[in-house]
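Structure ticket #2291
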Amino acid sequence: MDLNIFKKKQATSPLNKVPNEIIAPRKVQANITMTSEQKRKFMEELRIDKGLVKQLKKKIKEEPKERQKEKEAEFTFTPNPFNVFAARLFPGLSLSLAEKTNDLGIALKKANMPYLLNSYISMAILGMLLSLMIGIIGAFILAFLYPGNMIIITIIRNIFISLALPVLVGLAFFAYPSSQASSIQSKINNELPFVAMHMSAIAGSGVEPTRVFSIIATSKDYPVTSIEIRKLINQINFYGHDLITALKETAKSTSSKNLANLLSGMATTIASGGDLRFYLDKSASNTLLDYKLSRERYVEVSSTYADIYTGLLIAAPLIFMLILSIIGSMNIGGDPGTMGIIGIFAIIALNIGFLVFLKVSAPEG
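Resolution: structure written out below.
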């Protein structure tokens, strides 16, 4: 038999024919058109209202615009006029003072406040000057309203008293970043156990470590910790640092020591080639244990607060009312009605103060 005839028969044999869909699957795209009558019957069968379809179309068109506005509002910062005016008034003085107050700059970074150190110092100086002017004007007004024996001595005395106002404003400007950083620290510590568990689960899926932080940074479940993780992502995307350097730099600028230890440990684990998931599992267990212990300590302290409240604001008012009734019956002196009104207001004030104290001392989350 001729060799060419044999090859031709072999090629045309049904056993050698393989469907094209198996060899190279192809995507088939088709446009389906419906008449108005078919569309009406289709909507009747599925019980779809025409008004609902219009609302869905409108929502689909508006949703991308709303998301874009949310992103712009989240990442756009416009300086307030007070900040701009202060920065223009004291550019040289604020820069010279900024070189001597590194601690305040670190506190601003840890508090996530959107101000440069020199701009914040300019705002503090302007605030102190304004408070000084208000204090001097108030001193003159009080001196003329209540002149006393000698109006000049009264004015001088009031001016010296008003000098305390700019000092208090300056101390407030200096202390506010630290207090804000402390508040952020407590919030991060409350979120950290769950962040560590989430990161451990993501790392266990085998993704690269940078992807782990990207997922946490875009998550809405951790509103405070995600801001710190965005700092890390910015270190990589904008400053061009590698992951290990970014972890170390973010650990320096965060207000939470627990988060700083976690990031530093991750940097060491990645640099040494260790198991990142194992490290995150252990960190999640430790932070969760600390979280539970802090709650248990607060429960124990709350029982002590309950005893204090019972003795101070329940038993003491009863004894006070009993003493007032004895005084009223014996006509010893004083006005029991006035004393009773004062006691009632004192009890109300103590109750409000106790509630505020419980709110402040309660752990967040």
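Closing remark: The chain has 16 helices and no strands.
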